[in-house]
Every structure is written in structure tokens, then in C-alpha cells.
Design goal:
alpha+beta, globular, SH3 type barrels, 6 helices, BirA Bifunctional Protein, domain 2
Length: about 300
């Protein structure tokens, strides 16, 4: 992954691992993956920085995962050349990571940065929209059809292209900062007959021409690193001010807003209703059939058929 190696501060690449998130967590915890870099944040060492200071982004990637995970312990299957399994690691001040009024935007930043990386890679490749037989449809590559499904999925033309799993990891010997591990799985060239569900899709079914899977993964990851660094630095400089702009941008690229959805919670309960708002703290509001509005901050949210 030469482009990613040039863009990231640190790159760990293995042919196979159980989970890139697990590998990243282990290396952060044992001190072999440093995401502080000595950069100044508010007078202390930290990976996410404001102003002109450097934002450290580390990458852990694998050709194949054997035990990839998603939210609520969902599994993620991957094969070399067909899927991208890449984890991005950044350091953040604990006062941001634990502030419930703004920390939900960290997940949204990861989603927007992933869209940035895909957009940049498609443009760099000169890819254009194609139909199911690979014939050009005339639309330019980029934003058309690429959206975020709250809180952690990448959607393309109404189907799931990938997902993001965010985890908080303590930093050894640094009580003021923590690492955020963003695991991003994307379907790049999965054959239509091997997609895991009827709702899933793969990038090559919508855009072409595309390079080989490993090259495409490298281009997307490098663009994602650059976007994460830029977005996180701006967020860390003034989280509450940045949240307003993030709210507008996320709403504009949301697959969830305005649709009927069901939220599944870890206790086994669920809530169904219309998604009527993206809130200031990055939660969403569902209005149930009785007209009662509920703020949803965590859970797995599925968009229901119209």
C-alpha cells in the first residue's frame, strides 16, 4: 500500500489476521503502535491536534480477515482483492472522547472521511457510473449515490457498501488521551452472487473502470487518511463549533433522514418510526406511530422499505 504508507504516519500490513481492529487494539495497548507522536494539543502530547500541529494517523490493514466484526458482533467476511479491511487509529484527548455532547461526531467524521476517500479514488481513476453489465451510464464518479446510514454504514444507491466499527482504547501511561480505532470494511470487487445479503453491494457493480482490488484499496485508504487528518484537526480545535458544520454535511449525505427505520438496542428491545432529525450531539430522533419523538444515541438502525 505505497500511497497509504506515504500518507499515514505509521502503517502495519499483514496478509491475514483475525481482525484489523483487534490487531490495532493490541498494538496500541502494548505500546508498539504509537499514535501520540509528541504533537502538541492544549500543551500536552496527543494525536489529534488543532492549529498547525500535526495530526497523527496510523493504519492497520490486511488482505484477509478471518474474524472481522461489526456493530453488535455482526461478522464481516473478506477475501483478498475483493474487500478492503483497513483500520485507522488516532489519538484524542479524553475530554473530547468522553464528552457526550460532541463525541458522537467522531463516528460521523470517520464516515465522512471514508466517503472522501472513495470519492477521491474514483476521481483519480477516472471511474464513471456503470450499469449492471459494466456499460457506462454517463454520470461522473463521486458523490452521486454514496451516503451514510446512521450511525456506521456506507451506502451506495440504497445498498450497503461497507461498515465502520469505532472503539476507544486507553493509551499506556497517558491518562489524558485515548486512541480511537476506526475499522472500515468495504466491498470493492465482490461478485454479485457472493454478496452476503440482498441489501449488500460492491463498488465495481456501480463504477468503472477500476484498478485491481489492492490498488483500489490503497487509493481509498490514502484518501481516507488525508481526510481524517484534516477533519479531526478541525474538530479538535473547536469541537462544538465544528459540530454545527458536521451536522449540516452529514444530513446532506444521510441515507437515514426522512425514512422509516427501526432501531435495535443491546438489551434486545427495538423502536420503529420515521427518522425526523439529526441532532446537535450526533444522535437521531425517531418519531413513533403515536407521534412521540425519541432520541436514539446508540444501537443498530435499519432503514425499512418504503
Amino acid at each position: 500500500m505505497p500511497r497509504t504508507a506515504a500518507a499515514a504516519d505509521r502503517l502495519v500490513f499483514v496478509e491475514e489476521t483475525g481482525s484489523t481492529n483487534t490487531l490495532a487494539r493490541e498494538r496500541v495497548s502494548n505500546g508498539t503502535l504509537d499514535v501520540t507522536g509528541g504533537a502538541a494539543f492544549g500543551g500536552a502530547a496527543g494525536g489529534v491536534t488543532g492549529g498547525d500541529a500535526h495530526t497523527v494517523v496510523a493504519v492497520v490493514a490486511a488482505d484477509r480477515q478471518t474474524a472481522g466484526r461489526g456493530r453488535l458482533d455482526h461478522t464481516w467476511q473478506s477475501r483478498p482483492g475483493e474487500s478492503s479491511t483497513v483500520t485507522y487509529v488516532v489519538g484524542v484527548p479524553c475530554d473530547i472522547a468522553t464528552d457526550q455532547s460532541v463525541n458522537g461526531w467522531l463516528q460521523m467524521i470517520a464516515g465522512l472521511a471514508t466517503l472522501d476517500g472513495i470519492d477521491a479514488a474514483l476521481a483519480d481513476c477516472g471511474a464513471r457510473r456503470v450499469d449492471g453489465d459494466g456499460a457506462g451510464c454517463g454520470d461522473d464518479a463521486g458523490r452521486a449515490g454514496l451516503q451514510l446510514k446512521w450511525p456506521n454504514d456506507i451506502f451506495l444507491d440504497g445498498r450497503k457498501l461497507g461498515g465502520i466499527l469505532a472503539e476507544l482504547v486507553p493509551l499506556p501511561g497517558d491518562a489524558a488521551h485515548a486512541a480511537i480505532v476506526f475499522g472500515v470494511g468495504l466491498n470493492l470487487a465482490v461478485p454479485a452472487d457472493r454478496l452476503p445479503t440482498a441489501q449488500a453491494t460492491s463498488l465495481h457493480l456501480h463504477y468503472g473502470p477500476l484498478p485491481a482490488g489492492d490498488d483500489l484499496r490503497d487509493r481509498i485508504a490514502a484518501g481516507t487518511v488525508a481526510a481524517l487528518r484534516r477533519r479531526l484537526a478541525a474538530f479538535a480545535a473547536n469541537p462544538h463549533a465544528a459540530a454545527g458544520a458536521l451536522r449540516a454535511e452529514t444530513a446532506a449525505r444521510s441515507y437515514t433522514l426522512g425514512r422509516r427505520a427501526v432501531a435495535h438496542f443491546v438489551d434486545g428491545s427495538s423502536l420503529e418510526g420515521e427518522t425526523v432529525a439529526l441532532n446537535a450531539d450526533a444522535s437521531i430522533t425517531l418519531r413513533d406511530d403515536a407521534g412521540v419523538e425519541h432520541a436514539v444515541r446508540t444501537g443498530d438502525v435499519g432503514v425499512l422499505p418504503a
